[in-house]
Amino acid sequence: MLRDGSITPRDLIGKLDMLRQLCVIIASAVIILAGCDRKPTDKVNACGDGSWHATINIDPADELTAAASARSTNQVGPVERAACLVMTFACNRKRLARFQLVLEGEKSPLATEFGAPVTVSGALVQGRFKLDPPSRIYRLDDRTSIELLIQIIADSGGLFSVPITFDGADPATAEFGDWGFEMAIRPVLVACRLRNIPLTPSPVAEEVPEP
After folding, report:
1. CB under 8 Å to 121, separation ≥6 — which residues?
2. Residue 45 maps to a domain
3. Which residues does 8 contact at the CB level (< 8 Å), separation at least 6?
4. Poorest-confidence range of 36-45, 85-94, 105-114, 202-211?
5. Does residue 136 contact residue 166 with C-beta atoms inside 8 Å?
6. Residues 21, 89: one domain?
């Protein structure tokens, strides 16, 4: 640049080169982010793609501070009353953890029992969550059981399912994925001071304590 403030051809070339480098960096970032967000597309999913989503709430008026949730990839129940199953791990202002299963929709059949998650390699946990009376919602507040369920899903290898027994309808199985689970669950682990997720699968079958 000259003393009078005018730009020389050399300065212009330098600025264009910097702009070109910036464009390359931005394009690379977009490609990386697109790759990280890639999910299986070889199957038509009625409810969602099985990915997990994190919710962080800083509003002091809201009960929950953090949550991780996912919808089943398939609908369950009779065709005319089929519904998606939503699984949620959450933490409230008192640092109390909660695990919840919810059948979406007022027309969905009532469940009498939810099974603990079963992975593609077999059941890593034996447990049944009974609902009496039948309901569309199940909540678990036992800290030890919730930590174990988080471990099971983290070790699932990508896919797991939840068997459901309905009141007056055939049994069904809701299918889930663990895409994005470890990132989505971390705010819940921190907010509720739960133990960290182990990075290697547990080869030993464990049992969910009765709440």
Report:
1. 157
2. no
3. 1, 2
4. 36-45
5. no
6. no
